[in-house]
Amino acid sequence: MIERKYRLSDIAAALDIPLTRVRTMRARGQTAMHDSGFDDGLDDARPGSWRPYSLLDAVAFACVLDLMHRGLAPDAAANLVGNCLGFIGEGPHPQGAHHTDIWVGAIFLSEGRAHVGGQLSDLLNDIEKKVRHEIRLTDDGNGTGIVLVNASNHFRKLKEALADAGSP
Question: Where in the chain are the domains?
Fold first, then answer.
């Protein structure tokens, strides 16, 4: 099966954000898309030239925006999602909300953060291990916090929103 490719404007429209904001964030390396951090002017602003994006790119950017909405700085959110792309790309992404949905996020510990991703049951076990270790290292688990977003939910919404966009 050939994967559809989308324009940057398709992704901006599907996420209901201005294309100029997407371009700015892409140039700053804040999108977690495959070309994050590049600004060579190649996109759908010039007639006849555009860079193709995948559904994975769109989902990654949606996760970045979701994490930003939850309080993470754009750079931190993009870095986190970039490190979790394998989880998002491998799926599975069920057709409806399901316990096998893929989640990505971070655990904030007193000495840094750990990026996590996967199906919720596996993810919760991993989080519990990391938090228990943090509690053992410090007197009270100082600094422990968790933020997670449902990548599969973004996948479903974007797959529907981009159904008529792009090219095979």
Answer: 8-161
